[in-house]
Amino acid sequence: MKPTLGVAALILLITGIAASTNASAQSYTYTDLGAASEFNSVAEAINNSGQIVGWSYGLNSSYSATLWNGTASTNLGVGTIASHAYGINDSGQIAGWSVPAANTGRYATLWNGTTPTNLGAPLGGTAADALGINNSGQVVGDSFTTGNGRYLPVSWNGTSGSALGTISGQAFGINNSGQVVGWVSPSSGVAAATLWNGTTPTNLPTLGGTTGFANAINDSGLIVGESDTTGNMTQDATLWNGTTPTDLGKLLNVNGASSQALAINKTGQIAGSSNTFDANSPVWVEHATFWNGTGIIDLNSLIGAGTLGAGWYLHDRRASR
Fold it and tell me: Regarding beta strands 208-217 and 200-203, do their DSSP bridges make them parallel or antiparallel, or are they unpaired?
């Protein structure tokens, strides 16, 4: 199996791209952050101080929320059976989930440094996830309900959590104005990309198809995610400016190809993934992808033939919906 790099390497490369007006003329380096548990790791988010959070696998055969400062890793999951970290703000507050040693459920968790606070499962169930956080410490995610057996999108102010409506879904991102993005399922088999201003939801249009997901929002209110194209033939990375969707495209314009946008910064640069064919076998693989204006770049094209020849490639991972 090829060794792979996740979001951490992708973000480090984007830092280099942002400083250049001609990405193809530059050379870039990446850093293998390693795994706190030695076997496997995925980085999910980075703040403006360069702190990175995600998770590592292997410690007692479990998943452990992990913080990297440079290449030094800290296991945030001490005293838990399993944990994940998904977001970090500029104060170093970290959002994720953890399963306590007593194994009474999976609870949304906020870490201040390495100190965890259990945000609980505010809708009466025994499962909740904190998936995004802004610089004010507002947290968003989802929580399972006992009454109707479904997950609802949730926001937390401090340790108090409340549902963002009564329709199944998840909240993935929140900007510093408190605008929240995610998705809801208004009917069976359908997901609608959604923006919340306060608790008021707005469903965002797709690229002509049925389903959409909103994954991130910047402080200018630009939203990125993915949505179905006309006829539901493909799902393409999508940028919403207000409620107007723009197809960001993908690396291959062929049947079976798709793309997703997962992050956007304050200047409008977008990171995500697009599937393409592995050079060594006819299978689809995800490649880390960067959009700058109307251009699309496979980040693997920036890491040199020697590195690729050694069997590394950059891709992207995301928690399952």
Answer: unpaired
Spell out a b/e string for 32-59, using b for 16 or more CB atoms within 10 Å of the CB, else e: ebebbbeeebbbbbbbeeebbbbbbbeb
Confidence of residue 38 (pLDDT cuts 50, 70, 90): low
- Reported as a single tens digit per residue, the pLDDT across 3-26 is 333 443 334 434 434 433 344 444
Look at residue 41 in the predicted model and tell me its pLDDT: 82
Q: Which residues of 236-257 are buried (b: 16+ CB within 10 A; e: fewer)?
A: bbbbbeeeebebbbbbbeeeeb
C-alpha span between 109 and 156 (Å, rounded): 11
Which residue in the block uniquely carries the two structure tokens 């945030």? 76
Q: Do the beta carbons of residue 292 and residue 302 sit within 8 Å?
A: no
Quickly count: other Cβ atoms within 10 Å of residue 268's Cβ.
15
Residue 246: which residues within 8 A CB-CB, separation 6 or more? 238, 239, 240
Contacts for 73 with CB less than 8 Å, ≥ 6 apart? 33, 34, 35, 36, 41, 56, 66, 67
86 and 132 Cβ atoms separated by less than 8 Å: yes
| Listed residue (87, 60, 86, 56) closest to 74, CA to CA | 56
Among 42, 46, 110, residue whose Cα is nearest residue 76:
110
Strands 107-112 and 40-46: unpaired
Complete edge-to-edge strand list for the sheet that includes strand 208-217: 208-217, 223-229, 235-241, 244-249
Query: pLDDT tens digit string along 212-262?
Result: 999 999 999 999 999 999 998 899 999 999 999 999 999 988 878 999 999
CA dihedral 244, 249, 250, 253 (to 10 degrees): 130
Interatomic CA distance for residues 235 and 227, integer angstroms? 5
* Phi, psi (rounded to 5 degrees) for 289: -135, 145
Please tell me what DSSP assigns to residue 125: E
